[in-house]
Design brief:
Mean pLDDT: 89
Radius of gyration: 28 Å
Shape: elongated
Helix content: over 70%
Structural class: mainly alpha
Oligomer: single chain
Number of helices: 3
Amino acid sequence: MTGLIIILTVILLGIIIVQISRVRALAAKIRGEELVEQQSNDRSATWMLIFLVGFLIYCIVSALYYKNVMLGYG
């Protein structure tokens, strides 16, 4: 009998945790946090892409500038 009560308690605690996570997700949606988070992610992605392109251009230019030194002809 005690084992049954322990199992039911664990199951009910699991259900409570799932319900709390659902309520938190709905509350965040109502407050509009998802929109703000999406805008922040978009802004970060844009800046990371700009950095990536700039770094690639820098690598190509520096490789062309130092090609004789890197190849041992300098």
